Amino acid sequence: MRIETSRHTERFGAVRLHDVQRVLLLDSGGEDSSDAPEIKGVEKIGEERIRAIEKKMAVVIPTKDEKLKIFEGVISGVPHDCLLIVISNSQRGDINRFKMERDALAQFCYFAHRPALIIHQRDPLLTEALRRANYSDLLDADGLIKEGKCEGLIIGFLFAAMTGKEYIGFVDADNYFPGAVLEYIRAYAAGFSLSESPYAMVRILWKYKPKISEDELYFKKWGRVSEIDNKYFNILLSARTGFETDIIKTANAGEHAITMKLAEIMPLASGYTVEPQQLIFLFEQFGGIMPTSYQDVMTEGVDVFQIETKNPHLHEQKGEEHLKDMLAGGLGTIYHSSLCEPKLREIILEELKNHADFVPGEEPPKPLIHTPLCKIAFGKFKEFMLPHLSVYKIDGTQEKSTYLSTPGAVTFINGRDEKKKRSKG
Ligand code: GDD
Ligand code: MG
Does residue 89's CB lie within 6 angstroms of at least one atom of ligand 1? Predict the structure, then answer.
């Protein structure tokens, strides 16, 4: 892969915010594929470097009732050496979409000769493991893991940590283009290969997010919400440093990856605040303005890469209603941060009145922030979960007769085959 060198980096305390680096070439061959001197301003990241990182990376795909054809495309885009972890919250009733996903994944793994993990978010075994690890803030009133993408990502973290991975990347399951998925993950690897710190994060900026406009595709660059969120993140930084900036371009990067060392200390927030709250966490903890609980990270610094892909991003259109919630959630992360000064709070409220129908006196929701991994009893989670790992594992060697079952004949409960459970007793 070739990407632009980071030519402009802004420092906010120990956080190194790299300006957008464009992908120039998806595949640049091996490290020794050319003797020509490298061009200044361009980083060549050879296949060996990319694959070395992919081998240490878990790719987590959160999914909830996505179309199976699209899900199948997404999994096929994940590079061979990454550990594929699917965290599903799909329905398991008469129409068992979770089972369909599991079957499709097993078939893929069989032909691709690779393993994968697939876990249902509402699995009672998992709940028990979380209870033992004192991770009760992830549980709802019924004692099951809360619904939501963020909660799915946290489960992904736990399994990536349990399997000893060093990097974790996220990819939504509703992406129409398997090639885009492949590029995101290669860009994650490229970013990590350029990092000077074990605490790093790569956030994807799409070249285009096409929309259908009067029967034609229009290759839109910026989403409405992300444009506004980026602007307010930049205002926050400008107000704090006294120098105007436009460095933040990925406030809402659903597609992102984190080194496990950073993921362990980074709390995730529910709903549409996951990605903006990650930035707030970094600015609060390592911006040098507020005291930090993690001195080692202050010393090493945190690298935040923003990489622009070649592929456009086309995902399922699920209506526009949630855009206002997304905007309120994103701006709420800034509004409720102790870095936000009263003047900025006022203009955020004005923005929400204009674009999210806020009434006078209404405030954006406070992000619901979950405990980070380093603060739970992870050892207890692992101790309970490891002996059960085979329940969630697809090892890629199962014969067709065992990975595919007659539709409707078996239902999966807790990721297990109910027929097997019955025959056991
Ligand atoms: N495990 C799990 N559990 N996955 C879920 C759940 C859940 O409860 N709810 C949704 N998902 C999955 C979806 O199936 C999809 O793969 C992914 O999470 C994102 O959900 P979407 O509903 O497609 O979100 P979006 O397209 O509105 O928003 C995306 O882009 C935003 C920025 O533009 C997400 O990536 C957001 O996180 C991001 O902020
Ligand atoms: Mg989507």
Answer: yes
